[in-house]
Amino acid sequence: MDSCVYDVVSNAVNETEETELNSVETKRIYLWRQMFVSSGVWSVYFVLGLGFGAPTVMIPQIRREANSTDAVTESMASWLTSVHGYGALPWVFVIPLLTRYVGRKIPFLIICLVTLVSFLLFYFSTNTTHLLISAITQGMLLASNMTLLVVIVTEYSSPKYRGIFMIFKSTVFFWGVWVANATGVFSHWKNIGYIAFVCSMYPLTVVFWPESPYWLAMKGRFEECAASHHWLKGYDKDSQCELETLIDSQKQYIKMCAENKRNVAGNRVKFIYETISTKAFYMPMFISVVVMSMYHFSGKLVCTMYAMDLINQITGSNVTSSYGMLIMDIITIIGMQLGCILSKFLKRRTLLLSSATSGIFFLYVISVYLYLVKYSVIAENRYLSILFLTLFSVSISLGPMIMPSTIFGELICLRYQTPCLLLLTLFSELLMATILKISPYIFRTLTLPGAFLFYGLSASFFALLVYKYLPETKDKTLFEIENYFKDPNQRQNDVERVLIKHR
């Protein structure tokens, strides 16, 4: 079996004419194939954005229709805004197991079908309990964000396009948030459910995808892995090198697992300890947690979800808050698109740290400004307030908003993917849901200037950790990134093995 694997790879290359290898048209075909797969994921992110943006406009509309704030109590409003995260928790455990044992396609198809059902319930809901159930059902969609969707984009795309594909998916999410907000401002909030249902149909094209070459290699199905990899990425030198490295790495890992299987069964605790004490496991985990924490503790997601309430508190105008929310959202999206462009020219660390520093600076500026207004040192200017919020939003949108999933998708080693994604998703969903849930109480307890100061100090702490520990990953294969976290002796052994194979 092993000897024929490389024959399959080499024969496929020999049978392909040299003109095809260098053809621009052929490369374009493989790019379109990768975009075909990634666009299904992007559609899911857009739908997820619609679900996240809905409460921002849905809650005020329901209260206006009932002519009473009791129609949606403060407690229910905070639950409708944050329950997606708590609803995701059971699926954080289920989806990684499905992803590991049945592949990438089947779990993705299940998520698409559940999403269709959740937005049908959203559209036909008659009370807030129905909306709460719909939001809980969407928890599966949210859980797939880090446990499956990131994996698909990472494994199905070439290193050359992987970064921009990953970053673009984050911008699509906030396009969904903006469309939901705009729909709620200019029409009835139930139209959001109609748009989401229609957009949920396109990802069903998953039935035409090949299975992930990385999953096939992990299962020892190397011939199918080669066929899938060639369909997605072609036969050029870089793709061929990536494929051979993938197969070689997984062969060694499968062999090691077979040799240690008896020992592992006899000493499970020791095996778990050795896993979590491996640098290739705990360092990517630690860095991913820090990057995600920096984004969530910047307060940007909170500002997005509670945009109308925040702007209304600052400006004292309902009309200004509605249009200010849409303006901030569209400027944020433009910033994210600009971040996609900058990611093609700047290194990951440079873009993330420079934009994070700028965003943190404006958090302090907003806090100082609001304190000066609070103590009547200066007069309040609603346009200046919105300007500062906009500059903060643009800064965070350039990097911290669009790069966390890209970074942890690249950092996590394939052999530790299931436990890492499970733990990271559990942490992320709990952190996001908790921050969204308690944010109204933070704003009420610390007041607006104190809340912005809190977010500024928190984000500063995590930015320092990012500066110290985050490596550069741009234009590197997943194997090269994995090699960075290995111990020096293990890294040298891998290099020697590759050199011997190519002699």
UniProtKB/TrEMBL annotation:
Q: Report the domain of life of the source organism.
A: Eukaryota
Keyword field contains Transferase? no
Q: Which UniProt keywords apply?
A: Membrane, Transmembrane, Transmembrane helix
GO CC terms in record? membrane
The way this protein sits in the membrane is described as: Multi-pass membrane protein
User: What Pfam family is a match for this entry?
Assistant: Sugar_tr
Bilayer-crossing residues are 36-59, 79-99, 106-125, 131-152, 164-186, 192-209, 280-298, 323-343, 350-372, 384-408, 449-470
Named from the GO MF annotations, one term is: transmembrane transporter activity
- Domain annotation Major facilitator superfamily (MFS) profile: ranges: 37-474
Q: Where in the cell is it found?
A: Membrane
Q: What is this protein called?
A: Facilitated trehalose transporter Tret1-2 homolog
Q: What is the lineage of its organism?
A: Eukaryota, Metazoa, Ecdysozoa, Arthropoda, Hexapoda
Source gene?
LOC114241384
